[in-house]
Design brief:
Order of helices and strands: HHHHEEEEEEHEEEEEHH
Shape: elongated
Largest sheet: 6 strands, antiparallel
Mean pLDDT: 82
Radius of gyration: 41 Å
Number of helices: 7
Helix content: 40-55%
Oligomer: single chain
Low-confidence stretches: 63-99
Strand content: 15-25%
């Protein structure tokens, strides 16, 4: 076989391989171009425009009295854009909350929808402003209660070591007084809202126990026995009661032995609705309960210092500062 006859099949094979490679390259190029085209279409796709177009086509074909494909209901308070209608652009913050609707405008002119859109935008701005103000107030309460907790936590740690005498008398009845009291132990804690509600501090608790000398003895007769027992429960005082009954099992008198031991509490509670802090105390200055209403702005270092003086029975201006 001649050399030319041998090279003919070889050339055919080479051409076939080249043609296959060229087709593969073209296929890859076509795929790359198609992929680039699809990505560009996705990037430029306007979902809002497609939705409006679909709505127009549906209304045009539904035969429900909305045959005009250009009738599209606008969104309430739409986002500002270049496509905003001229009437929407004229809305200003000074627009009144309720705009009278002119009766002489034609029903199909769109002025009614324009005015409603303006009112809706104004209402949204008012709601956003109210929300921002409420959020600011709540954060102010949160910061004030954190300040309260940090101060009381430090205060109670020092008092638990010092255990000072508390120069305050707590009259109970008649000449019976709980006095010569000494600090025993205190505790400070706080509670926050759930994470979904904002995790703001909503309550700070401060409690401690004072102990005096010996027990007190008080006698009561007849109906006053139960009244006195209820009073001791209300004050949170520990006691023992020995009753003396007649032959018909009615209590004629009772001997109360009252421990010279007083539990004191102060609860600083957030009122987010009113933007205030409520201080609920028990046995703080006297036996019984008291309530103070404070503005968050009034809670500063000076007020907390005077509250500390109040706790240990020193002269203070807490009531005056709490009214600011």
């Amino acid at each position: 076989m001649s050399k030319s006859e041998k090279s003919a099949p070889l050339s055919a094979i080479v051409e076939a391989i080249r043609a296959k490679r060229d087709r593969k390259d073209r296929t890859l190029k076509d795929i790359a171009e198609l992929e680039a085209s699809l990505l560009a279409d996705i990037e430029n796709f306007d979902l809002d425009a497609a939705e409006r177009r679909a709505r127009r086509e549906y209304l045009a074909n539904s035969g429900a009295g909305m045959a005009d494909p250009t009738l599209v209901f606008p969104e309430i308070a739409p986002a500002r854009s270049a496509a905003t209608s001229d009437s929407a652009k004229t809305a200003t913050p000074d627009t009144p909350s309720v705009t009278p609707l002119p009766p002489d405008k034609p029903a199909g002119s769109g002025s009614l929808l324009d005015q409603l859109r303006q009112q809706a935008e104004l209402r949204q701005r008012e709601n956003n402003s109210a929300l921002a103000e409420r959020t600011s107030t709540n954060e102010g309460i949160d910061q004030a209660l954190k300040h309260v907790f940090f101060y009381l936590h430090e205060l109670v740690q020092q008092l638990n070591i010092v255990k000072p005498a508390i120069p305050r008398d707590f009259p109970l009845v008649e000449q019976t007084v709980l006095d010569r009291l000494t600090w025993q132990e205190g505790f400070a804690d706080y509670r926050t809202q759930s994470q979904s509600a904002g995790a703001l501090v909503e309550l700070v608790t401060f409690s401690y126990r004072l102990k005096g000398g010996g027990a007190l003895h008080v006698e009561r007769d007849g109906p006053s026995v139960e009244r006195f027992r209820t009073t001791l429960f209300d004050f949170g005082l520990a006691f023992n009661c020995k009753e003396f009954k007649n032959e018909r099992s009615y209590v004629e008198r009772a001997d109360f032995q009252i421990a010279s031991d007083i539990s004191v509490s102060a609860r600083w509670r957030a009122d987010f609705t009113k933007g205030l802090i409520l201080l609920e105390t028990r046995n703080l200055e006297r036996l019984g309960s008291a309530l103070y209403t404070l503005r968050p702005q009034a809670i500063d270092q000076a007020l907390l210092e005077d509250f500390g003086r109040l706790v240990i029975g020193q002269s203070n201006r807490f009531r005056e500062l709490a009214k600011r």
